[in-house]
Design a protein that fits this description.
Elements (H helix, E strand, L loop, with lengths): L8 H6 L2 H6 L9 H15 L3 H18 L1 E4 L2 E4 L9 E2 L12 E2 L8 E3 L17 E3 L8 E4 L6 E4 L6 H31 L5 H16 L26 E7 L2 E10 L5 E7 L2 H11 L14 H11 L5 H20 L6 H18 L10 H36 L2 H33 L6 H6 L3 H11 L9 H6 L1 H6 L7
Helix pairs in contact: 5-6, 5-9, 6-9, 9-10, 10-12, 11-12
This protein binds a DNA duplex through helix 8, helix 11 and helix 13.
Length: 494
DNA sequence: CGAAAGACTTGGAAAAATTTTT
DNA sequence: AAAAATTTTTCCAAGTCTTTCG
């Protein structure tokens, strides 16, 4: 049974009286034919002749050109998502209570346009009207509508390459850099608060320790039954941790096991400082598994406290700070100036990976992983064979040169030496690739690279070690991080 | 004040595009 | 030139945090 056959009430509601006469139970329906119809349609599109595909692409480009840009403060800026989302079945992630509900088509009558008073106001499609046209320059969105599944607002906003988003991004990292200046004090403070007479403070201090040490998310409370059951730091429940006085030779170990954002599992066994352990025991006393671990704490009181410690400080700043500082430290520790470019890039990826692991950015093992690993191994074996051959040839050439002592045979030795060196370098590169791939099997690097790592750290590293920025950031990423590429020299320090 | 609404950032998977291999 | 592998882009949410409302 497909996941969607679980939840059909919203579809039943959309059916006409006539349809309801024919279809009484959706779970008894056979959908294989309609499924096949869409699969075939997809195939047909793929099999289209070249010219037809070209035409389709041109049409898409035309749409992008006409609707994909706006003028902000006199500059033409790219829009991130310039189309509304099409109707369809809501999937959601993990065990979502609303899975399979019908997502309705967005009509012009649902859409609010936000633009300048003196701009050319976009025309609604013929025969339609916008819900509203407003001129609010205190917000950044260009259009919005309310989506019918969660009843939340969706927005049309600018692309990350825009000046507006770039400046916001820069600000974000500047806040994180300010945290660097006060983090020692804050750490001292929360250690002190572990002993507070007030339970409220103790919980806050332990939670903050987790957020800082383990890069947990804040964990806002969620409306039950509206979304999948996931948690962050403040919303952890007793059932999500287990205490071990001693485990695998370590003392005071906390075993975390819970579903975080997007239902990604967080599993970790962490030795903690003794007062934390004692406090956790206290927090768990006389509670059921389903009870809140931090019953005297929520994200808004935590953030209020953080605001008092530093202007602009919130829980997520710790994630940004710890991610960026980790990248910087790891790059420093792993990079050697005398390495070749491939080895330096491996070092970069490893530093990036350390951050992704800290932030728990996981991915499913790619479907083709095993095979592609095997292919790589085959290449390595072939290269090794070539190398062995080249070694023999060099040996022979040397013997030959020794016997004949002429110019020609000497230059032949040089040639063989060069070949050998080239093959060795190629083998090294392949092995490096294999290592990188294996270590990256279940780690997703993209999110940290895009959202947590101050791009100036990477740019400075590139400049310092002579690695072209294109090796680290692709075109889109370079556009997003244009501000940093512009700004950072090799001396930049986070 | 707490709850709801609003605005904006962060997230992995799937689709599409591009590159490499056969 | 087709197929396979890899990289990039799109998709569609799901979080965080701020503002507004009752």
């Amino acid at each position: 049974m497909s996941p969607f056959q679980m939840k059909f009430t919203s579809i039943m509601m959309e059916m006409t009286v006539e349809e309801k006469k024919i279809i009484k139970r959706l779970d008894k329906c056979d959908f294989t034919e309609i499924h096949k119809y869409f699969v075939d349609k997809n195939e047909a599109r793929k099999a289209l002749p070249k010219e037809e595909k070209q035409k389709l692409k041109e049409e898409a480009d035309r749409l992008q050109e006409e609707f994909g840009y706006c003028i902000l403060d006199g500059h033409r800026e790219k829009i991130g998502n310039f189309k509304t989302e099409p109707p369809g079945l809501f999937r959601g992630r993990g065990d979502h209570p609303k899975m399979g509900m019908l997502k309705k088509r967005i009509m012009p009558e649902d859409v609010i346009i936000n633009c300048s008073r003196d701009s050319k106001i976009p025309e609604p499609p013929p025969g339609h009207k916008w819900k509203e046209v407003r001129f609010d320059n205190t917000v950044t969105w260009l259009a919005s509508w309310t989506e019918n599944i969660q009843n939340s607002i969706k927005y049309i906003m600018l692309n990350p390459s825009s000046k507006l988003k770039g400046e916001k991004d820069w600000q974000k990292y500047e806040v994180a850099r300010r945290l660097k200046g006060v983090v020692d004090k804050i750490r001292f403070q929360y250690r002190f608060d572990w002993k507070s007479r007030e339970m409220r403070k103790r919980q806050r201090a332990v939670a903050l320790y987790f957020i800082d040490k383990l890069a947990l998310r804040a964990g806002n409370e969620k409306e039950e039954g509206e979304t999948a059951d996931t948690v962050g730091c403040c919303s952890l429940r007793v059932e999500h941790i287990q205490l071990h006085h001693e485990l695998d030779g370590q003392e005071h170990v906390v075993e975390f096991d819970f579903l975080g954002k997007d239902c990604i599992r967080y599993y970790n066994k962490v030795p903690v400082e003794k007062p934390v352990f004692k406090n956790l025991q206290l927090f768990m006393e006389n509670k059921d598994p389903g009870d809140d671990l931090f019953d005297r704490l929520n994200t808004s009181t935590l953030n209020k406290h953080l605001q008092d410690l530093m202007d602009g400080l919130t829980a997520k700043v710790f994630r940004t700070y710890n991610a960026s500082i980790t990248l910087q430290e790891q790059l420093k520790a792993l990079t050697s100036a005398e390495d070749n470019i491939a080895a330096k890039i491996l070092s970069y990826n490893r530093a990036n990976r350390a951050v992704a692991i800290l932030c728990n950015h996981q991915r499913a093992t790619p479907k083709t992983f095993e095979k592609s690993m095997q292919n790589l191994q085959t290449k390595i074996d072939a290269k090794k064979e070539q190398l062995a051959m080249a070694k023999q040839e060099l040996k022979r050439a040397k013997a030959d040169a020794k016997a004949r002592k002429d110019v020609k045979s000497k230059s032949n030795v040089d040639k063989k030496k060069k070949l050998l060196a080239k093959l060795e370098e190629q083998l090294m590169k392949l092995c490096t690739q294999a290592t990188d791939k294996e270590e990256n099997k279940q780690v997703a690097l993209g999110t940290s690279k895009l959202n947590y790592l101050d791009p100036r750290i990477s740019v400075a590293w590139c400049k310092k070690f002579g690695v072209p920025v294109e090796k680290i950031y692709n075109k889109t990423q370079r556009e997003k991080f244009a501000w940093a590429i512009d700004m950072a020299d090799e001396e930049f320090e986070f």
